[in-house]
């Protein structure tokens, strides 16, 4: 079984590749309004794919995992996609599964292309493609079982809570804006995994003070009308699909 959460397609691509290799169910967390209970076949591996979020996992993913039930689990493999560095992201996911009295997961870090345009520039299309070729090779090694699992150092684990604490501030939605170029297609409203956006006269506005900060709305907007403060203005948008084309 492969469970995934993806905003801009990196983790979705990885999940699809794992599913092709190992079969079983392919589960998109965004299709679940409520936490669920999952049953695995005898000996089946539970694969989890999600994106790195301030050296941890996002609020939506964390709460889905905390509240969902997992039965007959003997082995867990977690792949955390990231823009470059996972920090102590492995420690937080290990803790989460151990708190649920599930087996300790084997964690892999997979550097792909960053979508965090609030802090970093999105690389050019040429560099994106190069990074994804590299990621594809690493993913093949994970699937073949020849890639070394990721293990953060003791020091990084000590620093991780401080880094991840910054995510709470990043979740504030008041800095989202919509430009006049908005064509009122409603895609951002439809796609938001936590229903933080609504429309007034077809124009989107944020109804929740905090969201998951996944940036799905910002990167998928067909006319790049969504920004977060000024930092994302004049910044490229990124989706795995657009890079693959
Ligand atoms: C809120 C947020 C925080 C992020 N923090 C990190 C980080 O600490 N380190 C990193 O390498 N990438 C970070 N990223 C980049 C994503 O983890 C990376 O682009 C990921 O592959 C996106 O996956 P997706 O396309 O499946 O959504 C962050 C992205 C978001 C939206
Ligand atoms: S996705 Fe973009 S164009 Fe469509 S409604 Fe939202 S902001 Fe407007
Ligand atoms: S409002 Fe945008 S960034 Fe926030 S959770 Fe929804 S899609 Fe993600």
Quick structural overview:
With 245 residues, the chain is of the alpha/beta class.
Give a structural overview.
The protein contains eight helices and eleven strands. It is α/β, with parallel strands linked by helices and 245 residues long. The chain is globular. It has helices at residues 10-22, 59-67, 89-99, 125-144, 154-170, 187-191, 216-220, 240-244, and strands spanning 2-4, 26-28, 37-39, 45-51, 69-71, 75-82, 106-111, 176-178, 197-200, 203-206, 226-228. The model has no long low-confidence stretch (mean pLDDT 96). The strands form four sheets. The protein has a five-stranded parallel sheet, with helices on both faces. Strands 3-5 form a two-stranded parallel ribbon. It binds flavin mononucleotide (FMN) and iron/sulfur cluster (2 copies). Flavin mononucleotide binds next to helix 1 and strand 6.
Describe how the helices and strands are arranged.
Layout: E1 2-4, H1 10-22, E2 26-28, E3 37-39, E4 45-51, H2 59-67, E5 69-71, E6 75-82, H3 89-99, E7 106-111, H4 125-144, H5 154-170, E8 176-178, H6 187-191, E9 197-200, E10 203-206, H7 216-220, E11 226-228, H8 240-244
Parallel strand pairs: 1-2, 1-4, 3-5, 4-6, 6-7
Antiparallel strand pairs: 8-11, 9-10
The structure holds flavin mononucleotide and iron/sulfur cluster (2 copies).
The site of one iron/sulfur cluster has 12 residues, from helix 7.
Class by helix and strand content?
A: alpha/beta
Alpha-carbon distance between the two ends: 28 Å
Q: How are the strands of the largest sheet arranged?
A: 2-1-4-6-7
The largest sheet, given as strand count, sense and whether it forms a barrel, is: 5 strands, parallel
Low-confidence runs (pLDDT<50, min 5 residues)? none
Average pLDDT score: 96
Bound molecules: flavin mononucleotide, iron/sulfur cluster
Amount of beta strand: 15-25%
Note the run of SSEs as H and E.
Answer: EHEEEHEEHEHHEHEEHEH
| Percentage of residues assigned to helices | 25-40%
The helix tally amounts to 8
Number of strands: 11
- Which word captures the global form? globular
